[in-house]
DNA sequence: TTGGTAATTGCAACCGATTTCATAAATTTG
DNA sequence: CAAATTTATGAAATCGGTTGCAATTACCAA
């Protein structure tokens, strides 16, 4: 097995001190250009690779960004991560990733690991049942930047990257109303999470602004899983009068709900129009194609990572921006286009 | 900002030397139990956290596993990663992740970064156009374990985690034949990649074993994207005689091909039966539901990571296993069940 | 020639934990 | 009770870069 080459070996090779070698390798301006070149050449020739621990130990930073996600294998989250990885990689940062699997317990453990791994910054989407963000206090105390995205929490020391969930839900609901729906049901997730409370707000506001009554019974809170969609469908079928529109806070759940309704003989969109949320690929596969909100995951990942790397590289000196809101649009497809409006 | 607590601070606090503190914290047997307990208590009380760089620098390992994937945002890959993360996390390893975006160039750069980050081991799924694995030589030379999964390459020093693609494709094709198909088309990906050549082999063997002719014209090599599926459908529509079965090496492509065929008035499965590959969630959404091969991504991630951590923790002393083959099954759904066989 | 400044380079002290070797104290054995 | 072990602890070297400060040389103007 090859022995590892150090700057001391290089120093011996070129007849300069380790100090100069170190400086040359870091492109320090106080080193003669010719010296630098010679050192580069010899280093390359000897197959030198820098020892990041030694460097990190001395410099007190790691060039590593921690990411904590609820779950990796969802279309949205993996898109986010793809965007993050691209930006982080380009900026010279490594990404270390862990999933909370939706529990606060694991999120706390992960935060601790990240803290011990001394990440330079943290990108977090909160778990389903995270009721506090106390476990990030150590980061705040030590001035390690934490950026929340999608599922965020308010904190004066952290930035949040979100879409305007209220507005998006408002658009979605308004669209249903424009299609003639007068009795709309909203299927949502855990109402402790900002995204779902905001979407509920948008739903409510749209009703009110269109002089439609808002009834608590029209909101079905679920865990947004496959089964939840089916159960919600059953619940809807029992309602009297039967709803004529559904706004679901998640595509996957929406699709399963739709399937169950179709099996029960409901015509979509004519009997019931459906709108989802996220623009998951399945929305273009299900029949009829699902109207949904385009939630730009990849872009969100890029923005979150860029925000962090800029801050770390002191490109953005102060952390002025507290919230970044990305645009999100309604994508209209057949699942919500009632016939009477079609030509 | 809090100052960082070191073992020296603790040493001062308890009146023992840093040596003893270090040993106590690592649960070394040569430290008195009472001493240990006192050190634990004080460490906790002072809010001590170990400095991983110092430790890594001295110990020459990082407790970090590098993962290089072609692309993060695919259902299969993110499932794999979810499985990996779970196992690695439990075994006390961090995962650093990078994507090659399908190009060998970026894969080489990523490998270099991982090498410099001194990962303890590497988990790799090769990029589309990786024609050699020379860029992993430094790892092999230094004895750093590299495990390939899904898209693998032969190397005497590395383990591969795969499914039996030949057998899976054989099953899929045989199933189509059993359904009465006599003129089957195979849509595949880049034939330089093991998974696709193997699937092609399975396709071929199944034909031969059933006394059906294998024609080169029946194999459509594509990039398996959404558009590729549509283009392939157009190509199929022009064929004379028209095929009665399609075996696609990827669900996403299969679904789009199916949609295009349906639009052209083809009845599925009666005119043409379709089988996909991967068991992506969309297979249960498309109509008719797509018959496919269950490719256990999550499990593959678990197995790959476990294999690596066991090796690193010297639980499996020698690297005996060179290839691990996971089981994969055919899941039959409506897209391939021709009427005449239905009751 | 002299004083002064800029350009290069090196010494040595870190960063914080681990580990070899030696030592002191406690315990067992003959 | 002396000798041989065992148990518990510490001093100091080490891992491989980085960096404050000092030293040397080169260069320029007066």
From TrEMBL, chains A, B:
Enumerate the spans annotated as HTH lacI-type domain.
5-59
Q: Which SMART domains match?
A: HTH_LACI
Q: Which InterPro entries match?
A: HTH_LacI, LacI/GalR-like_sensor, Lambda_DNA-bd_dom_sf, Peripla_BP_I
One Pfam family, please name it. Answer: Peripla_BP_3
On whether Transcription is a keyword of this UniProt record, the answer is yes
Q: What is the protein's given name?
A: LacI family transcriptional regulator
The organism's taxonomy opens as: Bacteria, Pseudomonadati, Bacteroidota, Cytophagia, Cytophagales
Keywords, in A-Z order? DNA-binding, Transcription, Transcription regulation
GO molecular function terms listed in the Swiss-Prot or TrEMBL record? DNA-binding transcription factor activity; transcription cis-regulatory region binding
């Amino acid at each position: 097995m090859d022995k590892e080459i150090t700057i001391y070996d290089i120093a011996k090779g070129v007849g300069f001190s380790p100090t100069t070698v170190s400086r040359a390798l870091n492109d320090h301006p106080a080193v003669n250009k010719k010296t630098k070149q010679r050192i580069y050449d010899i280093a390359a020739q000897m197959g030198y690779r820098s020892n990041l621990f030694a460097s990190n130990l001395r410099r007190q930073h790691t060039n590593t960004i921690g990411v904590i996600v609820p779950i990796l294998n969802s279309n949205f989250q993996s898109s986010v991560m793809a965007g993050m990885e691209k930006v982080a990689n380009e900026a010279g940062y490594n990404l270390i990733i862990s999933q909370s699997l939706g529990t606060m317990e694991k999120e706390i453990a992960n935060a601790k690991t990240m803290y011990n791994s001394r990440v330079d910054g943290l990108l977090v989407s909160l778990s389903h049942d995270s009721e506090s963000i106390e476990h990030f206090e150590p980061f705040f105390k030590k001035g390690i930047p934490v950026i929340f995205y999608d599922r965020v929490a308010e904190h004066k020391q952290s930035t949040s990257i979100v879409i305007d969930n209220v507005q998006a839900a408002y658009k979605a609901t308004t669209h249903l109303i424009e299609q003639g729906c007068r009795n709309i049901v909203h299927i949502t997730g855990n109402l402790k999470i900002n995204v779902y409370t905001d979407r509920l707000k948008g739903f409510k506001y749209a009703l009110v602004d269109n002089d439609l009554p808002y009834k608590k019974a029209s909101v079905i809170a679920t865990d947004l899983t496959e089964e939840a969609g089916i159960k919600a469908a059953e619940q809807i079928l029992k309602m009297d009068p039967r709803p004529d529109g559904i706004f679901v806070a998640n595509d996957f759940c929406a699709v399963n709900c739709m399937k169950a309704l179709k099996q029960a003989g409901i015509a979509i969109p004519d009997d019931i129009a459906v709108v989802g949320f996220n623009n998951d690929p399945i929305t273009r596969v299900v029949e009829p194609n699902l109207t949904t909100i385009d939630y730009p995951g990849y872009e969100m990942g890029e923005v979150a990572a860029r925000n962090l790397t800029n801050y770390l590289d002191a490109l953005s000196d102060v952390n002025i921006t507290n919230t970044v809101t990305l645009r999100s649009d309604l994508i209209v497809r057949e699942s919500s286009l009632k016939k009477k409006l079609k030509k």
